[in-house]
Amino acid sequence: MVTLSNPTKYLGNELEYLKRVLEGESWSATGGGWTNTLEKEFAKKLGSKYAVAFNSGTSTLHAALEAAGVRSGDEVISPAITVIMDSTATIHANAIPVYVDVDPQTFTMDPKDVAKKISSKTKAIITVSIYGLPVDMDPIMDLARQYNVVVIEDNAQCMLSTYKERPLGTIGHMASYSFENTKHISCGEGGIIITDNENYAEHVRKLGGHGFKNLKAEEGRVRLNADVFQNPNYKRHDMLGWNYRLSEFCSAVALAQLERIDELVQLRIKSAQMFIEVMSGCDYLIPQCTPHDRTNSYYTLGVRYEGFESIGVSWENFRKAYIQEGGDGIYGAWSVPYLEPMIATGQFNKRYPEIYGKLHYEKGLCPIAEMIQPKLMQFKTNYRDLSLAESKVMVLDRIIKKFKKR
Ligand SMILES: Cc1ncc(COP(=O)(O)O)c(C=O)c1O
Question: pTM score > 0.90 for this model?
Answer without folding.
Answer: yes
